[in-house]
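Slides due. Your pick:
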Amino acid sequence: MPERVTYTADGITLVGDLAVAGPDAPAVVLTGPFTGVKEQVAGTYAARLHERGFTTLAFDHRGFGESGGRRAHEDSQGKLSDLRAAVTFLREITERIAVVGVCLGGGYAVRAAATDPRLRAVVGIAGAYNSPIRFSAGNGYRQALASFIDRYDEELPAVGPGGAMGGDEPFAYYGTKRGAAPTWENRVTRGSLHSLMTLDALGAAPLLTGTPLMIVHGRTDDYCSPELAEAAYEQAPGPKELVWLDAAQHIDLYDVEPYVTQAADAAAGFLHRHID
């Protein structure tokens, strides 16, 4: 069973689940989807990677789950600070550390690895490689940003009618027993949507230099663009691998077999090759 641990980032207490695989095992820090908590997708992949020989740390980012900070608010720079603090925490155990991100966490994982040389490899699974440059090419981008700023502190549901994550698919995971977790809350600030639309994950890919990158993505994904996943892969200059899975939905890579096993096997093999 994982051990509950706490550490701090910017004076904010963060709560995580640490599973130590042994004194010589490499370590992985995990970051998950938008609004997600450690008992959900990040915890699922932490358990799979621990079974495959890794010390793992799945934690609640600031504002979510058991961690401190402004509630239900997506703080892009704060989440990157959380990841740096997680790496510092894991360095007490080993210097062989990688980051694995799922959904929005895939974008944060790439940004974290691009700016923290202590991370020796990065894996994005069903990742959101957001690109403000590409988003701004569409109609209404700046108007949308203005609307989020004007109502920055207001909250809306994360899923369901009028929710930040629209459509049936997010609700099928978060709004049902399928993704139930005691600390997950169905709310998020409108300012969080500003953070999402201005997060430049794709632009960090060329900054990875020699840091190995693996991207695992569904061929069909209505929520995290396969085109942006391929672009992140193409723009990364170092060792890299791209794995396409025949999933029908984005959330298939959250908890549906055989896709979770396929993604975990691919990630584990890649990380063992590059950080062992």
